[in-house]
Amino acid sequence: MALGSLFRRPTLLAATLALVAIVGVSPAQADRCDDIAKELKNQIDGLKISVNTGNMIYLTHPAAKELSLGCRGRNYSNELYAKTDRKPKPQFFELVASAGAIIFTIPKPDVATGSSRCIKRMGILRGDKVSMRFRRLNMECTRTKTEASIAVTRGKDE
């Protein structure tokens, strides 16, 4: 009887449902992101998880200056960001392809082809910032005088 009278008040019922929704949904996103990071660590040699800050997990690897995994942004479901020297080495492309295949669950050659095309398109004619779409992945490559970077994302609706 006491429980029934407790839920007769609409504001109390709404507050209880809101609390259940918040508690039930929040850990799922972080857990999924942590699972992806652990899978990356287990399958890519030399990869280490360094810092976990909310929706970003920073990773380290000898082939990249910076490497991070972003989870659930405003316009994307997952993001892979990698930065290296201005002239990327084959190990960098291998790292991006391996990580992208695990994160986005698409074949490794597709990620390798898309990332290498994006980085190689930067130059005199197209400039230092190139955005392209390849196999349902959005790729944005930028470079400075000393570094080149790539951000690979997939939209929320895909």
TrEMBL record:
Keyword vocabulary terms for this entry: Signal
Signal sequence interval, chain numbering: 1-30
Stated name of the protein: DUF3617 family protein
Species assigned in the record: Bradyrhizobium icense
Classification of source organism: Bacteria, Pseudomonadati, Pseudomonadota, Alphaproteobacteria, Hyphomicrobiales
